[in-house]
Structures are given as structure tokens and as C-alpha cells.
């Protein structure tokens, strides 16, 4: 199980971190290639956007745990809080009950069985 203690201690840092910018230059130049490269570093990898640590989840099982099983235990964090000023409180930046209401409004209606 992923815990904050695990995050603080045991997670490998993605290769190529530079002073001040962290991994941003590599990511901005070739985002998909960089994410493919980081997959080999482990199921969970620490990535620095400038001085701010972030996590890249490479494991389908861990991603399911994060997004489905234990979703209520995690919060999007300060980057998404700051993004609210630019993007508003939409589906991307909202959390908990508000996020659920917005997601349901955007979700296509289920159609009944065809007869």
C-alpha cells in the first residue's frame, strides 16, 4: 500500500534531474519519450517540476489503487490548487463531492436495453 512514509523515503528519483529546473526541460522537449524512459525507473518515480516533487505512476495496479480503491485518501495537491486560478474549479481541479457531481454531469447518460 502506498503511504506518505513510503513517498518520503523509498521512491527512486527519475534520472536526469538538473538544478533549479528539475526534470522540466526533458519533459517539455519530449514528454512522451521522457515518460517512456522513466518507466524503467520503477512503478513509482519521483519527478521534480523545478523544486516541487511530483510522482509518476507506472504500475497499472498502483494506478488503480490510487484512482479507484483508495481515491478518497488522496488529494490532488498544491499544483491543482494553484491551477484553479487559471482554469477555474472544473473537473480537472475539483475534488471529492464537487468532482463527483461534475463528473456525473459530463458522463454520457446510460441508455436502456434496446428492444
Plain-language structure description:
- Helices cover 44% and strands 10% of the residues.
- The chain has 115 residues and is mostly helical.
- The chain has a two-stranded antiparallel sheet with strand order 1-2.
- β1 (44-49) and β2 form a beta hairpin.
- The mean pLDDT is 82.
Provide the residue-averaged pLDDT.
82
Helix content: 40-55%
**Can you summarize the main beta sheet?**
2 strands, antiparallel
Broad shape: globular
Radius of gyration (Å): 17 Å
The topology string of helices and strands comes to HHHEEHHH
Tally of alpha and pi helices: 6
Strands ordered across the widest β-sheet = 1-2
Structural class: mainly alpha
Provide the β-strand percentage band.
Answer: 5-15%
Distance from N terminus to C terminus (CA atoms, Å) equals 46 Å
Spans where pLDDT lies below 50 across 5 or more residues: none
Count the E strands: 2
At a glance:
The chain has 115 residues and is mainly alpha-helical. It has helices spanning 4-9, 24-29, 31-38, 60-69, 78-87, 96-106, and strands spanning 44-49, 52-57.
